[in-house]
Structure formats: C-alpha cells, structure tokens
Write a structure and sequence with these properties.
Blueprint (H helix, E strand, L loop, with lengths): L3 H8 L6 E3 L1 E2 L2 H9 L5 E3 L1 H7 L10 H14 L4 E4 L8 H14 L3 E5 L1 E4 L2 E4 L2 H17 L5 E5 L10 H14 L4 E3 L6 H10 L4 E4 L7 H7 L3 E3 L3 H13 L2
Parallel strand pairs: 1-11, 2-3, 3-4, 4-5, 5-8, 8-9, 9-10, 10-11
Antiparallel strand pairs: 6-7
Helix pairs in contact: 2-4, 4-5, 5-6, 7-8
Length: 245
C-alpha cells in the first residue's frame, strides 16, 4: 500500500495536470475532499486572514498548527502546508517546525525564497536560501523522513529586474540543493512558463491568477501543478458580501 507521501509525490509526475486546492480550515478541506480532489494544501494567507492576521508570518505558528491539526483530523487526503519563510530565523528553527508538521502527518511544504523586513518583501540571497534548503534536506534524509519540499521562487511575484535570468539561476541552484518542486507565483506568459519548464527536471507549479493560460495550455507547456492560492477563500467571502447587500 502506498503512503500519502508517495501518493502526493506521484501526482507531480503524472501526464495529467495536478490541480491542488488551498484550504483554510477543516470545513473547506472536507468540501474539496468531497469534490474528489486528490490532495490538499493550506493557504497561509487564507488561514491568517480567517484568524484575523495579515499574511507574512504574522499569525503565531501555534495558531497555524491548531488549524493544520484540525484539517488533518477532518480529511484523509495528503496535505501540504504553506510554511512561508519557515517561521524561524535559522535552518534549525525551521527544521523544528517541520518536525511538528511531520508529526501531524503533513507530507509536503512550500518554502519561500523571499523575506519580509519592516513590512517590505524582498528576495533572499539565493545562496543563503539554497544553503538553508540543503541543510533541511540533509537532516530529513538523516532522520529518514519523506517530505516534498516545493520551493517558492518569488522573482515573478516581486517582478525583480532581469527576472527571467534570475529565475533560471535560482531554479538550477535550488534543484541542486534538494528541492522537489519549483513554484513560480505570478508567472503568466506562455513563453516565460515554457522557459521555466525547460530550465529544470523538477515539476513546475504555477498559481491560479487572472491572465493565466487555461489548464489545457498549461499542461501542454509542461506545467505539473496548479495551486489555487487564496482564490477559493476570497471567492467565498466575495459571495458572502453579495448576500449581505
């Protein structure tokens, strides 16, 4: 019998495009499970806002763990967690948080290569982030723990200078440092997506945003995973606002 990690890993390497819904509580997780999605992920932005916090690690990690624990208890699907920047200042601190997730049954995480200082998000130094990633992967291997690490590269999200070249360099570095997947939020142009796919042997993940090519085109371009991000959460509350008019 395959494990949840094996199920989750396999979804990134099948011919069919993997659509991953992002949830924010047990109720939303159960609803997506009932719609026969094969796996779930949290949206840190949605969870934070549902608890009255801003995104960007403003909610306490203990509060996040409570929500994750309830999602795991409410569903049977593989779960990946948006760990943002790791909720810790060092690789050791991040790894301690990862162990807490593994203990709950989480099979994957997203880890961002950007940081926030005084409310402003900026790209972390690529080599610094890659070293943190490699350290975490080595410790997971030493502890015989399977965990899918999807690296969120924020070059397109932040629209940095020479982002195509910067993205290519970072993808290659992260691939060599042990990443299991690459996530490029806010990429939308077909040419850019195709170039990113050609840059790596890892599965490429994009986020559902306005202007993104449809699923058929994304699949043809070689994209392996599409995340909803906070899309479903935002739509729920947009509809709620309409009901209260």
């Amino acid at each position: 019998m395959t494990t949840k990690f094996e199920q989750f890993h396999k979804l990134h390497h099948e011919p069919r495009l993997f659509v991953l819904p992002n949830v924010w509580n047990a109720k939303s997780a159960r609803l997506f499970q009932e719609k026969d999605f094969p796996a779930l992920a949290t949206s840190s932005a949605a969870v934070a806002e549902s608890l009255g916090y801003q995104d960007g690690e403003q909610m306490p990690f203990s509060s996040y763990l409570f929500i994750i624990r309830r999602i795991v208890a409410a569903t049977q699907l593989p779960l990946s967690v948006d760990l943002e920047m790791g909720y810790g200042p060092t690789a050791d601190a991040i790894y301690t948080n990862i162990l807490s997730l593994v203990d709950l049954g989480v099979v994957g995480i997203n880890l961002e290569d950007s940081a926030i200082h005084q409310g402003t998000r900026f790209l972390d130094t690529a080599k610094t982030f890659a070293h943190t990633l490699e350290t975490i992967k080595n410790r997971l291997a030493a502890d015989n723990i399977d965990l899918f690490i999807n690296v969120r590269c924020d070059t397109y999200l932040l629209d940095v200078k020479d982002k195509e070249k910067e993205t290519e360099q970072r993808i290659k570095l992260y691939e060599n440092s042990g990443a299991d997947g690459i996530f490029l939020p806010c990429i939308r142009e077909e040419q850019d997506i195709a170039s990113a796919v050609d840059t790596t042997r890892l599965p490429l993940n994009v986020m559902y945003i306005p202007g993104l090519p449809d699923l058929e085109v994304l699949g043809a371009l070689g994209v392996k995973r599409v995340s909803m991000g906070p899309y479903a959460f935002n739509k729920v509350y947009e509809n709620f606002s309409l009901l209260t008019k």
